[in-house]
Amino acid sequence: MMRRNKNNPWLMNLIWLAGLVLVIFSRNYFNQNVLWRLTTPDDAILYAWLQFALPFLTGLYLSLLFMWNNFRMKDTSLFFMVALPALIIAVLNPLAVTFPLPLPDNIYWFVTTLNSENYLTLVAGLTLIPSRTY
Question: How distant, in Å, are the alpha carbons of 85, 110, 119 from that of 113?
Fold first, then answer.
């Protein structure tokens, strides 16, 4: 009979914290050494997608903390009311840069204003895993 290790939650949280430090340092390094070089008009598409991907992946990583602590939520309302709209609005900005989408000016203003600090993309990544519907 296997005995459960009582230090397992502590170890998993310590590993998650070390990973968070790596995420923070790598995002900082990436922002200081890569993104500032992509501010030319030729690199606007890559810059827009990277501006979407960094906070989204950070949000996914942050949501792992809930999953490791046996946080089990299958909330479809969280998925349909928070995760999906946040993901759609967050991905509209890089899509508008990549493809010439015929968005009205007020919709384009709304999308760029909501994505100005990338919080919406972070929320989309953070709520996607806990709201899983499978």
Answer: 15, 5, 11
Nearest to 56 by CA among 119, 6, 116: 119
N-to-C CA span, the chain: 32
Q: Which of 4, 21, 93, 29 is nearest to 56 (CA)?
A: 93
Give pTM, 2 decimals. Answer: 0.73
Euclidean distance between CA atoms 56 and 89, whole angstroms: 12
Q: What angle do CA 128, 59, 17 make, to 5 degrees?
A: 125
pLDDT digits (tens, 9 = 90+) for 79-132: 888 888 999 989 988 888 888 888 888 888 888 888 888 888 888 888 887 776
Crossing angle, helix 84-98 and helix 105-114, to 10 degrees?
120
